[in-house]
Amino acid sequence: MQRNRLHKTYSSIYPEAGCDEAGRGCLAGPVVGAAVILATDFFHPLLNDSKKLTAMQRNTLRKFIEENSIDFAVAFVDNQTIDRINILNASILVMHKALDQLNLKPEFILVDGNRFKPWQNTPFQTIVKGDSTYQSIAAASILAKTYRDEFMETIAAEFPMYGWEKNKGYPTKAHREAIRTFGVSPFHRKTFTLFNPQLSIQFPDSPCD
Fold first, then answer.
1. Residue 68 burial (CB < 10 Å; 0-12/13-18/19+)?
2. Residue 58 domain-assigned?
3. So what's the pLDDT on residue 25?
4. Which residues of the chain carry a pLDDT beneath 70?
């Protein structure tokens, strides 16, 4: 079994929360954010960036994180809001919403990536590839990813033509072809490039309009 070599904390300030989001590059569905506060003795050998794990490993870790973290929260920002305020602002907003839902107010925040906006005047640090560097960000990435995947699998039953149970809303060739054939759904992000811009496409009348 691989061994978790992630750092436990960044600062000496307690409590420190890790934040991450999932779904930023998708064509459909919400962006989902998570905030996690871990104890200094928290450990699981498989903990890592959610993208480096299998679905089974992520689901196992989700349960472990929820049962063994000091506090955690997950939040959603829908596709209409993404279209209105843009995906960068929506990604920051969803992490703010997750922080708002924590029962224990963090005194320091670690954020995956390189862009963030202050939350309640709390000091923060952005970390590029933080989800493969710090335990709390990795835990947040796993919660955000699993909750979002679960949501996309649920709405896939209502709109089976897009294959969301497999592609989770990401811009796969099959997903773009389905948009070209069936048009957009209420869950698509209309400000995103939904199909190959090199093609001239006439959308058919869509039953989703």
1. middle
2. yes
3. 96
4. 1-2, 196-209
